[in-house]
Specification:
Distance between the termini: 57 Å
Largest sheet: 7 strands, parallel
Strand content: 5-15%
Strand order of the largest sheet: 3-2-1-4-5-6-11
Length: about 325
């Protein structure tokens, strides 16, 4: 029996890297859609030890022809659309590109599957940001009304609804995972969690003195990306297509994240190292996200394994190591010079 084939967009990102490792461990042939026109950054895949085990296809979510060509040639059993302009702050500065990638990208993928390989199972990466500040008794569930508060969230909502539309209109196995914030040592440095852990590591080593942040009282339901990609895979293994909300069920503030991160390196007076910069305040903020993923637990058998505390420790430790390695490399260069 031949191995299952999976096509992943956004394969070099945090989620794509963890998902690739998971699928390879399960015996899949993994194909990654990557853009030829830009310098390919595959460091995350290198860190996961999988960069040479992937088959790459040239393509871009803004180019429908390349998407169709990839689907037609690979004929994947499963498609995971993780490609996105995923930084909320950037979506206000570049809303058109955000919309082209996050909204029209899923449409192009679904269209390609509809015409060239309609039996493939499709996963759409939706986001808790679509809820905005909408909730029911403080919690967000699959039934909570959407009220997006950023161009990013609005673009993702289109991708979410077009996935539902193709499922209902054409009988395709197309599902969305409404994933709450999930982090890891592979998270991009522009995100607040990595900004904190990298800042803490630099302060610990005397390479910086402060971290500039926005709203410290924003609350998020933070989980570990490695746990969340397992939920993605489980959604595509079900008998019937259905959307699921994936979360830890806990909510923590940016302030709490800071406290734990500084505590990990033995700094208790962390407030003197943190400054509020108005440029990091969002025009329309989402104050709290708190997911209730009972359906995923009951129907998928999924639950998070890594606690919030362990997640923060894992990220701080990884950035401490990065800073140490960088400083060591700089000393070697100086010695050579």
């Amino acid at each position: 029996m031949s191995a299952k084939k999976a096509l992943i967009t956004g394969i070099s990102g945090q989620d794509g890297s963890y998902l690739t490792k998971l699928l390879l461990d399960k015996g899949y042939r993994v194909f990654g859609l990557v853009r030829r026109s830009v310098d390919r950054s595959l460091k995350n895949l290198e860190d996961m030890g999988v960069v040479d085990k992937i088959e790459y296809a040239d393509g871009d979510l803004t180019d429908e022809c390349s998407v169709m060509k990839a689907v037609k040639s690979i004929r994947p059993d499963e498609v995971y659309n993780l490609g996105a302009q995923s930084f909320v702050g950037t979506s206000w500065d570049n809303p058109i590109l955000t919309t082209e990638v996050n909204a029209l990208g899923p449409l192009k993928l679904l269209n390609a599957l509809r015409y060239f390989h309609p039996t493939a199972r499709y996963y759409q990466a939706s986001t808790s940001e679509m809820f905005g500040n909408s909730h029911d008794k403080g919690l967000q569930t699959e039934q909570t009304p959407f009220h997006p508060r950023s161009p990013y969230a609005i673009s993702k909502l289109y991708g979410h609804w077009i996935t539902i539309n193709f499922r209902e209109s054409f009988g395709m196995f197309a599902v969305s995972g409404i994933l709450f914030n999930h982090e890891s040592p592979l998270r991009g440095p522009e995100f607040v969690t990595r900004k904190i852990t990298m800042g803490v590591a630099k302060i610990k080593h005397g390479l910086a003195n402060e971290i500039l942040l926005g709203n410290l009282d924003s609350k998020r339901d933070w989980g570990f990306a490695g746990d969340y990609v397992e939920a993605m895979w489980l959604m595509l293994q079900q008998k019937e297509p259905k959307d699921f909300l994936i979360s830890t069920g806990e909510t923590h503030s940016v302030r709490e994240f800071l406290e734990l991160a500084f505590k990990r390196v033995g700094i208790t007076d962390w407030e003197k190292h943190v400054k509020i910069d108005p440029k990091f305040m969002r025009p329309a903020d989402v104050f709290a996200l708190h997911g209730h993923s009972a359906s995923a637990g009951k129907e998928l058998g999924w639950k998070p394994k890594v606690s919030f505390e362990k997640l923060v420790e894992m990220m701080v430790d990884a950035d401490l190591k990065r800073v140490e390695n960088s400083a060591r490399a700089d000393r070697v260069v100086e010695a050579i010079i």
